[in-house]
Amino acid sequence: MSDSIRLRDAVPGDSPAIIRLITAAFLEYPGCVMDVEREEAGLLAPARSHTRFWVLEDQGRVVGCTACRVFPDSAGEKVLEVKKVYLAVSRRGKGLGRKLIEYPEAYAAELGILRLICWSDTRFEAAHRAYEAVGYVRTGETRALHDLSRSVEYGFKKIRGQQPKP
Asked: Per-residue DSSP letters for 117-140?
């Protein structure tokens, strides 16, 4: 990353910029709707609504974000879910999206968490390629969100330190 670009913890004042960033991403896909109050209220207080929430900043402007949620699986093992990976169109193709995916993974390593998951809207094909490029594999699972966008998501998983099978 250049000297002007840095990844930092989100603060309450970042909420409007995060909402603008994600809304802009949704507008790239027909049928995707952003309704903060009804469906994304956590974005009003991003740092409190996730285990961790980071923003990618360039010269004081939020140009990307990433977040995670840590939770126990049915066996009590901790799992880290990568969430809210968004990058401004003007910053794509420069390796920054990869950094946004890898940053929560580094946090998982700090916590000793091996299993990572994420869900991605079926329309977000570039995101699927980005996840797969850093070792995530599709689980074969889908889930319908029953939201205004009529979203269906693909499940992805990764075991830290394990290379995916070709």
From this structure: EEEEETT-HHHHHHHHHTT-EEEE
**What percent of the chain has pLDDT above 70?**
95
pLDDT at 64: 97
Q: How far is CA 94 from the centre of its chain?
A: 17
Read off the tokens for 166. Answer: 């070709």
CATH 3.40.630.30 holds for 5-159:
yes
Give backbone dihedrals phi and psi of 118, rounded to 5 degrees, phi first: -155, 160
The reported pTM is 0.91
CB count, 10 Å around CB of 139?
A: 12
- 101 and 92 in contact (C-beta within 8 Å)? no
Quickly state the pLDDT bin for 166 (edges 50, 70, 90). low
Separation of alpha carbons 126 and 145, rounded Å: 20
Q: Would you list the domain boundaries of the chain?
A: 5-159
Phi, psi of 119 (to 5 degrees): -125, 140
The whole-angstrom separation of Cα 159 and Cα 108 is 11
Contact between 22 and 121 under an 8 Å Cβ cutoff? The reply is no
